[in-house]
Amino acid sequence: MTITDTGTGTVSWNRTALDEIVSNDGGRPVLFTNARIMTMDPLIGTMTGADILFVGSLIVGVGPAIVTAAQDDNAIVVDCTGTTVVPAVVDTVALAGGRGRRSDHVATLTPGNTADFLVVPDELAADVPGAVATLLSRPEQVRALVAAGRPVLWAGTDAPGRATAPEAGIPAAPDLTGSPRLGVWIDRKDFLHQELTADGRYDETRGGRRHAYQGRFWIDGDRIDYLDDLGFWAYGEFRGDELHHAGYVMKLG
User: Fold this and answer.
1) Which CA distances in Å does 233 have to 84, 193, 204, 225, 251?
2) 83 partner at 20 to 30 Å CA-CA among 22, 196, 206, 225?
C-alpha cells in the first residue's frame, strides 16, 4: 500500500503500520501479508500471495491465509502487495547447492528462525541475489529491512529508533571494576588458567607456562572477544558459570 502525503508530496509505505511496530513492546504479532516469499527453505520453497508472521524476534508462521486470524490476534498488518520478501541474511553456500541437509541451511524464513528479512518490489527481485543487490546498490528502493523483528530501513530511509552499527576499529579498554566475570578461569584438567582483569587484559598460563598468551578482551553480553598481543583474534562464550573458549571449558577458580 502506497500512501501520498498531500501536504508534503512525499510518498510513504505502510506508515501507520511502521508507527505501530516501532511502538510495539514485542507483545503484538506482526504480519507482512500478500507478498511473494522466497524462504530459501528447501521444504517450504517460494510462495505467492503469502504471509510471514513474527512475534518479537522470531518467525512463527509462513504461508498463505495467515492474515485471516490477524484481527483475532490483534496483529499489526503490513500490506506487501507487489513486493517480494527474502532473507536478509543470505546463505550463499545454500545458493550454490552446498548444503546437504535442510537442517544445515542458515537464516531461512522458517518458523522458529529469527525475523531477519528484506522487502523489495517484485520487479527488483527476480531471485534472492537480485533482491539483496537492491539493498546494496539502491537502498532507496527497499520497502523494508527488518532485523530480529525490528525495522532498520522503511520506504528507503532509516526507520525511527533503528539500531546503529558499532563504530569500526578497536574500542578503548573498558573499566570492568566489579564485574563478576573477572578473576582466574581454570579448565577442567587444570591445564589452562586464564586471568581476566578490570583493565580489560587477559593473561594465560598453559601447563604451568606463565604468560603463554596475553592481550586485551571485550565482553558483549555472553560473548568475549580476545585480541592477543601477537595480533590474532579469538573468542569465547559464557554459559552460566562456565567460560567456553577454544575447546576448553573453564570455571572461576
Assistant:
1) 39, 18, 15, 7, 22
2) 22
